[in-house]
Amino acid sequence: MLMVSTDRVVTKTIREVKGLVTGSVVQSRHFGKDLFAGLKSIVGGELSSYTEMLEDSKRIVTERLEQRAKEIGANAIVGLRFEMSAGQGSSELIGYGTAVIVELRNSALYRAIEKILRNDSLFCGYWWKLKNVVCF
User: Which residue among 1, 68, 94, 135 is the one 20 to 30 A from 32 at the CA level?
Assistant: First the structure.
């Protein structure tokens, strides 16, 4: 499923807005790993156990968003955002966006633009500035 943080997709048309979708997960920290992370924070360096927990949370939230979007008949999510909060002994990750139905624009112009987007980002920025369209 297509999931983007932008409000639109240049080469696709939003045919129908299905609504808001959300996904969240709350995970508790492992006491042993938490103790080790506390020691590691004194000497510096990446807290890999927290990084793994965050990546796992992101995967779970993304799967839940996709499932909820499919349940209401959407094939894409636009305006995707993530927010995280950490509490004593746990962390929460929330993802939300707008579920939509998109379809590929079939005109030759949009196929040419899509080719430009893939091959020439400098020209892309100039072209889209002229047309008042966001290039990503």
Answer: 94
Structural tokens at position 65: 């968003």
The domain ranges of the chain are 2-104, 106-136
Contact 15, 87 (CB under 8 A): no
Tokens of 67: 């499932």
- Residue 96 is predicted with a pLDDT of 98
CATH superfamily membership of 2-104:
Hypothetical protein apc22750. Chain B (3.30.110.70)
Q: What is the pLDDT of residues 69-81, one digit of tens each?
A: 999 999 999 999 9
Query: By the 8 A CB rule, do 83 and 94 touch?
Result: yes
**CA–centroid distance for 69 within its chain:** 14
| CA 81 vs CA 5, 62, 87: distances in Å | 6, 11, 20
| 111/26 Cα distance (integer angstroms) | 42
Element (DSSP H or E) covering residue 50: helix 48-71
End-to-end CA distance of the chain: 18
